[in-house]
Give the backbone structure.
Amino acid sequence: MPLDYDVLRFLWWALLGILLIGFAVLDGYDLGTAMLLPFVGETDAERRQIRETIEPNWEGHQVWLILGGGAAFAAWPPLYAASFSGFYIAMLLVLVTLILRPVGLNFRDKIAEPQWRLAWDWALAISGFVPALVFGVAFGNLLQGVPFGFDADLRLDYTGTFFELLNPFALFAGLVSVAMLATHGGTWLALKTDGEVAERATRIASLAGLIAAGLFVLGGIWVAFGIEGYAISGPISHSGPSNPLAKTVVRAEGAWLDVYTIHRPLVLAPLLGFAMPLAASLLVARRAQLAAFLASGLGIAGIIATAGISMFPFLLPSSTHPQASLTVWDASSSALTLFIMLIVVVLLLPIVLFYTGWALRVMRGRVRLEDVEHGEDRY
Amino acid sequence: MIDPGVVELSRLQFALTALYHFLFVPLTLGLSLLLAVMESVYVMTGRKIWKAMTRFWGTLFGINFAMGVATGITMEFQFGTNWAYYSHYVGDIFGAPLAIEGLMAFFLEATFVGLFFFGWDRLSKPAHLLVTWLTGLGANLSALWILVANGWMQNPVGARFNVETMRMELTSFEALLFNPVAQAKFVHTVSAGYVTGAVFVLAVSAFYLLRGWHVQMARRSMTVAASFGLASALSVVVLGDESGYTATLDQKMKIAAIEAMWDTQTPPASFTVFGLPDTAERATHYKIEVPWLLGLIATRSLDRPVEGIDDLVRHGIARIESGILAYRALETLRRAPNDAAARSAFEAHAADLGYALLLKRYAPRVVDADEAAIRRAANDLIPDVPVLFWSFRFMAGLGFYFIALFALAFYLASARRLDTRWFLRVAFLSLPLPWIAAELGWIVAEYGRQPWVVEGVLPTYLGVSSVSKAAVIGSLLGFVLFYSTLAIIDVMLMIRVIRRGPAPARDG
């Protein structure tokens, strides 16, 4: 193997983060736009205008999520198994709302009944809001740890319930996520539409950006003083076999923030997470829509990176059996699988980025109300 | 402890959602290429009617594609939500093709499908044609990678058990990729998709011709469907035969069950065209047989035997006993990783470890299993013989029917006699048949793999998550309600679009 196991594991940790950020930045504006649909658009034409900003490209963006799941499966099988089965009901909730999205976008305009269209508009809003909320709630739970352990066969036993996932800190993290994606969707609509829709989107985005920045700071204070972080206490081989039962772990208040005193430059991530939503809010109000949209995207990257860096090397801490927590060093695939998949990603991801960029370029420019007013169903 | 109720419910949920997903997949596979063919004719000839055809069939494609994508996400989620131990146990191997599918195929089809619908006025003719072809290529590549993953469940090559991590790990990516079972399944499955697309276009066009609507478009569509369909229907049968041959490499029990063949025959074995399998008596009554045929299909020879169910159960007992030795050595190694004797005992019997795991439902500690438990576990190796026997025969019969249907369509199209009314009625009534054949094919492939989730490696029973029965009942009911509603809406919209027909050919 040309790369050592610990290097491969670190690279795959970074890649998982990049995939999540790719999803949140690209599909995040689709989710944010869907979430805002009934509030920003009032007439049938306005709502068509809003949907047409995302319809040509959202499908490709959603693949970042599917790939994130696939990459977790391939590179971090225990993480994939534990999170999807542990968050059973939450995952199915996300799934149902994700199914509503393609169906809603494609089916809505095929029938001209106002009731039919109204129902799909709200279904689309839910399909944006629920995933945004649930993904935030999931991160909130990751930061606190979730109750699971393993038996001798490494069969996972998750002992929590759905309602335990909805604890105050997790719901708070859900709000951060909703505010972040509302900012992103709002700046996108301000950039891509005209008229009343752009005006309303501007107001919402500039408010949501302020809220996102404020909530993020509050979340940091909560993490520092209100919840316990985890740390590996004994020696652990970074290239050992992926068996999560061979280490010891301690919990301590504020432990998640230790990394920033050891590696100071990493403070850049939380700084972006705070400053960029704020910048997006100010820029969109000053009609610098493209800059606002990019700032919002950077803010999302900063917020997700903050969560990942704070928890490193933990992927999924166990609140009931801390020593069984899944970490970068003991919950990965084999070195061979990580290496082959790394080559595949290095070869293919640049091509994907290239044609994603091309597809967005083809659809560049604003969707004007006058163009869609007498338009037809394009699907 | 594993709750058998959770196992059964999770299996039912996976089976229903997978069969439902596969209502949309084959049409996507077939129609995406048919769209590319029609648009190619448009770009080459410049005749507007071919563009109108592409857009009309594209609208139907879009409705179907939305459902295919939506229901496909369910499949990826479900490995984790309901089959967590499976995901942990084989994720090192199985996860890789799934991730590559996302990277190589989903991005391609999903990115370009948007431009297919929204790019007509923004792209040059050749650029739009390229977009259409790339959408079809993405859909077909996705079938390749998911069948590499599925092929590994049928024939788990290139992997071994790692004692330290308690799971299967990849040893050869080439073996995984060039798995003969995966290759055979891929070509068989995509051909079945092309047949589905072609029957769909043929049947809807027949409906138009019967009514005298959109005659110009319907005739042309029918001609395209007839030639594309004939080639596909031929390859689906030939390549299905190849699937049968590769299955005998490691899934002897599946072949024996499909044939309801209880005893090993003197080679070459004969093929049972019809019969009544009797699982209680372990015999098949009223058999009509074709001599030699099964031996030829399954072994490509006249002298090698095709083993019967009873013999395979006897081999199973031997493998379970060998597997117990592997399991006992594994327990020693967990306590004392450096025990050389245990290590060599494990290596000697590791290939049968999966067979020892079959005992878990009868003797949870495995090593203390008595003879009765071993016999019960070995009997579990027999899949549901009558279901496999009949599913296979209906599927194969439909395969031959499609060849006849398209051969006739091809002849009538060449003879310019596509107005033959009885044929149009037959073509229209054939609409549901490719879906029935495809679903039966999956039942043969996956129900026939039982009791294994990964053949010889991991019993389905053990693959399940530690979720509560109530949660799975809830999700199953949710899926049934939600999916039924979507199915009604989907069919309603399809019918609406078909009744409205294509928009008149416009400039551009």
Notes: Chain A has 14 helices and six strands.
